[in-house]
Specification:
single chain; alpha+beta; ATP Synthase, domain 1; 2 domains; eight-stranded mixed β-sheet
């Protein structure tokens, strides 16, 4: 019989963002969003920038994530994320400033600007703003 809950740990290089029992999760994978419920087959997934949604007791909790990996077991998920921030803790002014800085860098056509890095910074800022707007 499958477990009724999953234990989830979301860990960044700086802190444990979440640790607890969940009913399910939707997360941004490298090849698209994926969902996990209790009893899921074991697998590893690469994470991308996007919105992660945790379902806990019929309530949704949103997080902005910025890449990493997920280890999925039938009764446990461990997410090692480059960054993960709950929607209610996102500083909208800071995310807006980050978006503006990235847009300014991309607008400059200078060879000393790392365009890939600026595009990733813009994607992260836009994701944080999107997740924050849904709280």
């Amino acid at each position: 019989m499958a477990a009724k809950k999953l234990h989830l740990d979301v860990i960044t290089p700086f802190e444990k963002v979440f640790s607890g029992e969940i009913d399910g999760i939707m997360a941004p994978g490298h090849e698209g969003y994926f969902g996990v419920l209790p009893g899921h087959a074991p697998m590893m997934m690469q994470l991308s920038i996007g919105e992660m949604k945790l379902k806990v007791d019929n309530k949704d909790y949103l997080y902005a994530t910025s890449g990493g990996f997920a280890e999925i077991l039938p009764d446990k998920i461990t997410i090692l994320a480059e960054a993960a921030e709950s929607a209610d803790k996102i500083d909208i002014e800071r995310a807006t400033r980050a978006r503006e800085r990235a847009e300014q860098r991309l607008a400059r056509k200078s060879e000393d600007i790392d365009l890939d890095r600026a595009r990733m910074a813009l994607a992260r800022a836009l994701n944080r703003l999107k997740v924050a707007s849904r709280r």
